[in-house]
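Q: Is it fine to ask for two folds in a single conversation?
A: Yes, each is treated on its own. Send the first.
Q: Here.
A: Result:
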Amino acid sequence: MTFFQSAILGLVQGLTEFIPVSSTGHLIIIREILGLDLIGTISFDATLQLATALAVICYFWKDILGLYKNRKLLLALIIGTVPAVIFGLLLEDYMDTNFRSIYVVAGSLIAGSIVFWLAEKFAKQSTEINFKNSLIIGLFQCLALVPGFSRSGATISGGLFTGLKREDAARFSFLLSLPIVLGSGLKKLFDIYSAGNLASIESSLLISCIFAFVSGIIAIHLLIKFLKNHSLNYFGAYRIVLAIVIILFLGK
């Protein structure tokens, strides 16, 4: 890839990993627009997520260091991580083949918008994180295995369904993403290295990671600030418009 293509992929990854519009879905769309191959790109994308994971660590370093004191939150994060680990292993083969389709992305964008609307409609925002709602949020995170759904959108919606405030749901969502994103990214990086392909993409990957890290920190800050006074429905509307554009202009 060229510097421009690598920078664009990194920028898109950083912004859309946290804003609930689907990073994987947007990366697939951008690759279509740039004329890049879609096959086998899940390894590059998963490795690129390490940069956004680093952004989460840098932004929430106080919360992360405080986990040794806040055992309740630590256990909630562990419980919430289990479902995505199980389903991720079961669906790994499909994620790199059948799911990498712009039609899957378009459908997931619309489905996610419906989930956002339902979450906002029935949200009570009257409770705190506990073991029960952490498991429910973890199950919602599994929806993000399908490109186009959005990890942050799915988990924030799950948090709203269980009674969390938007800001609290967003914070838990970002912390919950760390084990899966780090585990998946490190595994894919090791796979690339083991296959002897790291040298061929290392410059492109480095450029993308730098842009993803910087834009990721910006996106986290802006989203938390936005959700204090606004609903997910704004993102839902964008997702529906994007799905229509995908079908009309990128459908083959």
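Q: Second one now.
A: Result:
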Amino acid sequence: MTRWRFTGRHMFGVLIVMFGVIIAVNLTMARYAVTTFGGTVVDNSYVATREYNRWLAEAAAQKRLEWHLETELGPQRRLRITVDRAGAPINGRISVIASHPLGRAPDRPIDFAQVGEGRYLAKKMLPPGRWLLNITVRKNRDVAHFTRDVRS
């Protein structure tokens, strides 16, 4: 009976399999990294840093308003929004832009109708999928911005 020996050919095979697995994993991860990121966070980081203090001031002003916003996805994927301050309804103008979190679908403005004191109902259905809602509520000179994540 002959004894099995580990030769250079065996080592070559081990190296080929090992590097093949590493390359396959790297290519897969690179593909996912490129196909799942939809774009930039800010278009110009220099301008964003200059605007930072203004954004902080706007956030502080919104916090002083003490407005509370609730979103709910109702029947037929129609979005419902309720806005109040300590239980008192806020009647104002509302605008909503639904954007895909990864930028794969174009942004969609959503029109709302006021259906009660501080209550709003979307006029159309929200398409299926995950959406990031950028909500702006205006009452007189007061403005509040909210962001909500919704799956329909």
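Q: Anything structural to flag on that second result?
A: Two points. The mean pLDDT is 89. DSSP finds two helices and nine strands in the chain.
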